[in-house]
Design goal:
Largest sheet of chain B: 9 strands, mixed
Oligomer: heterodimer
Largest interface: A-B, 16 and 14 residues
Structural class of chain B: alpha/beta
Number of strands of chain A: 5
Number of helices of chain A: 4
Order of helices and strands of chain B: EHEHEHEEHEEHEHEHEHEHHH
CATH class of chain A: Alpha Beta
Radius of gyration of chain B: 22 Å
Shape of chain B: elongated
Helix content of chain A: 25-40%
Strand order of the largest sheet of chain B: 3-6-7-2-8-1-9-10-11
Number of helices of chain B: 11
Structural class of chain A: alpha/beta
Largest sheet of chain A: 5 strands, mixed
Strand content of chain A: 15-25%
Order of helices and strands of chain A: EEEHHEHEH
Chain lengths: 121, 290
């Protein structure tokens, strides 16, 4: 299974990025092998609007079945639902590794509604 | 030979500097001089010109924006509609997904769809009301609550400008799309600024946003006080003419709060607004034939 983790860097050992739409990187982890690839999200980070929707498009295309992140806005939530990507919620900032471990232990709740307000530039 | 009647926007970077005060009094002055005036309140998120001009609004019509409707039977999920959308209003997931609140109604998605699966349908975003306040022609619009797309409504409002009148456009505050949409294609912009650190800061932003558009700018210093000339100094450095320095006067605030025009209660303001207008006419390209 492929899982995307929002991250502040290209390393799993570094802190997660708690935002989904404007996350700095997505780390795509193959949970069977433990291997991962880093995907730069700078273009969406700098988008004037619609960052969450575009980020949802990115992780869906990467083939992620689950996203591990801290907050998801209303439009990103709708796009992820449409793409069939599940959202596993991290409540407090930690490293990507820690988030992955807790996900695999089944300790992360699945987000069933957006938990962040939409915003306009 | 008569020149084309000018379109003048009254704008400001900062809110609450006195745009509406300047705009409604210019309108009142010009009709006293027998000139035809069309007042367009372009602050569609919070119109307030009607509170002072008290127009009779005899026409109301809904304002709409064309939004795509995707026929899922025909759609092949090729994703071209999402690629062409400048505003990212369509996301390509398993199938295209529309976010109507981001759509500017340009129609590019319908044009590029290779299987004609997209048609456009109007979506109501607000309403436009028009009428008159004595001899002043008046129009304003209201954007529906929660609707973020002000520029299309402002464009629809401006399209109703009466070419046989001097158009006064009361702009929304700020320097983002709604203010820029209001200022576009005008003959001059009057920037109303108050002499405070915030006033100067936001005036600077407005000048930087509007100057590349090419129309002449003039500044009105509102609530001017003798010991603060920061706005005047900035204008001198930038070679932007000062059209008027309107003094800080508590009676103005009191009259404003009652929704009254100043000319009846404070007749000296008629002369101040008249000098503002005369100075405005000295800007390049501005001319009003008597």
């Amino acid at each position: 299974m492929k899982v995307a983790i929002t991250s502040t860097s290209q390393q799993l050992a570094d802190p997660m990025d708690m935002h989904f739409g404007r996350a700095r990187f997505f780390l795509l982890v193959d949970t069977e092998t433990g291997r991962f690839t880093a995907h730069d999200n700078t273009p969406n980070l700098q988008a004037r609007q619609g960052a969450g929707i575009q980020s949802a498009q990115v992780v869906a295309r990467l083939g992620a079945q689950t996203v591990i992140t801290g907050s998801v806005g209303p439009k990103a939530f709708r796009a992820l639902q449409e793409a069939g990507v599940q959202i596993a919620l991290i409540a407090e900032a930690c490293t990507g590794e820690e988030a992955l471990r807790r996900f695999q232990e089944g300790k992360l709740p699945v987000l069933d509604a957006p938990n962040s307000e939409g915003h306009w530039v | 030979m008569s020149a084309k009647l000018p379109t003048i926007a009254i704008a400001s970077g900062k809110g609450g500097t006195g745009k509406t005060t300047v705009a409604v009094h210019l309108a009142a002055l010009l009709v006293e001089r027998g000139l035809p005036v069309h007042y367009l309140d372009c602050d569609v998120e919070e119109p307030n010109g009607h509170l002072f001009l008290k127009p009779v609004l005899d026409t109301a019509q809904p304002a709409t924006l064309l939004n795509p409707v995707i026929d899922e039977e025909r759609c092949t999920s090729c994703g071209r509609c999402a690629e062409v959308c400048e505003f990212k209003a369509i996301a390509m997931l398993k199938k295209p997904l529309l976010f109507a609140e981001l759509c500017h109604g340009c129609g590019a998605c319908a044009l590029v769809c290779p299987v004609a699966a997209i048609r456009e349908e109007p979506r109501e975003i607000g309403a436009i009301e028009s009428g008159h306040a004595g001899p002043i022609r008046f129009i304003h619009a209201r954007l529906n609550v929660g609707e973020p797309m002000a520029p299309p409504l402002i464009r629809q409002l401006k399209a109703r400008r009466d070419p046989a009148a001097i158009a006064l456009l009361d702009a929304p505050p700020g320097v983002s799309c709604p203010a820029v949409t209001t200022a576009r294609d005008t003959d001059a912009v009057v920037l109303v600024a108050d002499p405070t650190p915030f006033g100067l800061h936001d005036l600077t932003l407005a000048v930087e946003a509007l100057r590349p558009m090419g129309m002449p700018l003039g500044v009105v210093v509102n609530r001017a006080v003798p010991d603060d000339d920061r706005v005047q100094t900035y204008c001198r450095e930038q070679a932007i003419p000062i059209l008027a320095e309107l003094p800080d006067d508590r009676r103005v605030a009191e009259t404003y709060a009652r929704g009254r025009l100043l000319f009846d209660d404070l007749p000296e303001w008629r002369g101040r607004i008249a000098r503002l207008w005369d100075n405005l006419l000295t800007l390049p390209g501005l001319e009003v034939s008597p």
